[in-house]
Design a protein that fits this description.
The protein folds into two domains: 1-76 and 149-217, P-loop containing nucleotide triphosphate hydrolases (Rossmann fold, 3-Layer(aba) Sandwich); 84-148. 31% of the residues lie in helices and 28% in strands. It contains six helices and ten strands; from the N terminus they run βββαβββαααβαβαββ. It has helices at 42-50, 92-103, 108-117, 133-145, 163-179, 190-196, and strands at 2-13, 16-27, 31-35, 57-62, 65-66, 77-80, 151-155, 182-186, 199-204, 207-210. A hairpin with a 2-residue loop joins strand 9 (199-204) and strand 10 (207-210). Helix 2 packs across helix 3 (108-117). The protein is globular.
């Protein structure tokens, strides 16, 4: 089943073409890795897929629904793009409970399980502003997976994590893939891309190219 289909995607900002005729077809239940230097277009592509920016031209379909026409945002998605931004005076659990209340798909037990999966204590009374960078990244991963979304989009998922945290997140992503989720990751950590990805893509100045043939994981 096709999860994401992109045809002729372009995005121009202030006369600069940040996405240049992107064509892409991604299948359900696989991990796709995107790499490239800063400013290459990875984050902008992810923003377009998530409905956070409007393309200048082109078509994006997520699970056969056209972005900007059938839907404004993918119906079932977990996202981290750039910094994890949560309410600074709330605990991790309080933050996730508030976010979960928007769709009311999961309850307290599922939220607690997600926090535990990333190696944090759901009963911790420490508020988000007092979290270390690594803790903030972990709670961000927890919010991205807590509703068991069909699509998971992660920009730099292992940012600020120690070796133990990196291994933990990699294992979580492999578990989510096994569950059937389609996962998109962009990372400066080449190991993340090499170890996790079924298929890899390189971005450079808004252009997307397949890095190598697909391999099974």
């Amino acid at each position: 089943m096709t999860a994401i289909e992109i045809n002729g995607l372009c995005k121009t900002i202030k006369g600069h073409e940040v996405l240049n005729n992107i064509n892409l077809q991604l299948e359900k239940g696989k991990i796709y890795g995107f790499f490239g230097r800063n400013g290459s277009g990875k984050t902008m592509l992810f923003r377009a897929i998530c409905g956070l920016i409007k393309p200048t031209s082109g078509i994006i379909k997520v699970f056969n629904e056209k972005m900007g026409e059938d839907i404004s945002f993918p119906r079932s998605i977990g996202v981290i793009i750039e910094n994890v931004g949560l309410w600074p005076s709330y605990t991790g659990f309080q933050n996730l409970k508030f976010l979960a209340s928007i769709k009311s798909i999961v309850g307290d037990e599922e939220i607690k399980k997600s926090i535990e999966r990333v190696g944090l204590n759901p009963a911790d009374k420490k508020v988000f502003r007092k979290y270390s960078l690594g803790m903030k990244q972990r709670i961000g991963i927890a919010q991205a997976i807590m509703e068991q979304p069909d699509l998971i989009v992660l920009d730099e998922p292992t940012n600020a994590l120690d070796e133990e945290g990196i291994d933990l997140v990699r294992n979580i992503l492999l578990e989510e893939k096994k569950r059937g989720a389609t996962i998109l990751i962009a990372s400066h950590n080449k190991d993340d891309i090499d170890i996790l990805s079924d298929q890899k893509f390189k971005m450079d100045r808004g252009l997307l190219t397949k890095y190598e043939s697909e391999t099974s994981k």
